[in-house]
Design a protein that fits this description.
Elements: E1 2-3, E2 24-25, H1 32-38, H2 45-54, E3 59-63, H3 71-75, E4 84-87, H4 91-103, E5 109-112, E6 115-116, E7 121-126, E8 140-142, E9 149-155, H5 157-160, E10 167-172, H6 178-183, H7 186-192, E11 195-199, H8 204-210, E12 217-222, E13 225-229
Parallel strand pairs: 3-4, 3-10, 4-5, 6-9, 10-11
Antiparallel strand pairs: 1-2, 7-8, 7-9, 11-13, 12-13
Organism: Thalassococcus profundi
GO molecular function, one term: methyltransferase activity
Protein name: FkbM family methyltransferase
Length: about 240
């Protein structure tokens, strides 16, 4: 179910900002992304500005879509023929992201209900706390089953995104699963050397070892995201 309220929209029952309209999951209104959207603002506006400016003529991979708070801004920045590949493992968040796509009639988005990893399998994902409340964007991977834990599909980006699709940006908000996600995109990264935008993951030596010869360097931070590029760009 979506939270339907905002002071900034031509349809007062649907949250909106400058990029589009959103389905905010009920009960998650206090999460930072939801608060921003409900106030008619964009969440992580500098990250969005940078991604829109550097999408070029390629696709964007966006893993950790939550309710789709990034999706309208990224979709509308793409050139004709380019595509946004979005992934969200939490079933409730995925349903909200689907509705966000529908609300904006976005035709260049492929949204997948899966985590991204280094093998196609299932992963254990905690989606609810001990009281049964949805964790929303705080959902995370775990190693043991239990209350509030669901088995979710895991996908390798190399298997989902065709290798002949030019990828300009790979953005991961995957709750500590960045290494596995990047290993699952090994061929895409080596072919296209996309800009990497990685939440809380600042390991340039690991990236250099796994993707030698591409020349990735850490160029700075946007909000909590570390940005790596294999070409000469600035934030």
């Amino acid at each position: 179910m979506c939270r339907e309220r905002t002071p900034v929209t031509t349809q007062p029952d649907i949250p909106a900002n400058r990029y589009g309209r959103y389905c905010v999951p009920a009960g998650l209104e206090d999460r930072p992304a939801a608060r921003a959207v409900l106030a008619g603002q964009a969440y992580e506006p500098e990250t969005l500005r940078f991604m829109r400016a550097h999408a070029g003529d390629g696709d964007i991979i966006h893993a950790g879509a939550f309710f789709g708070d990034f999706i309208p801004a990224l979709s509308t920045a793409l050139t004709p023929g380019a595509r946004l590949w979005a992934f969200e493992p939490n079933p409730g968040n995925f349903a909200s992201a689907q509705e966000t796509v529908r609300l904006n009639d976005l035709q260049n988005v492929t949204l997948t209900n899966a985590a991204v990893s280094n093998q196609p399998d299932e992963l254990l994902f905690r989606t609810r706390d001990k009281d049964g409340k949805s964790l929303g964007g705080l959902s995370h991977f775990v190693t043991e089953p239990g209350d509030g834990v669901e088995a979710v599909a895991a996908a390798m980006l190399d298997f989902v995104v065709p290798l002949d699709r030019k990828v300009s940006i790979l953005q991961l908000d995957v709750e500590g699963h960045e290494k596995q996600a990047m290993l699952g995109a090994y061929h895409l990264v080596n072919r296209w050397a996309p800009i990497l935008i990685l939440e809380y993951f600042n390991k340039p030596q690991w990236i250099a070892r796994r993707f030698p010869g591409l020349g990735y360097r850490h160029i700075g931070k946007l909000h909590g995201n570390h940005v790596f590029a294999a070409r000469d760009i600035t934030l």
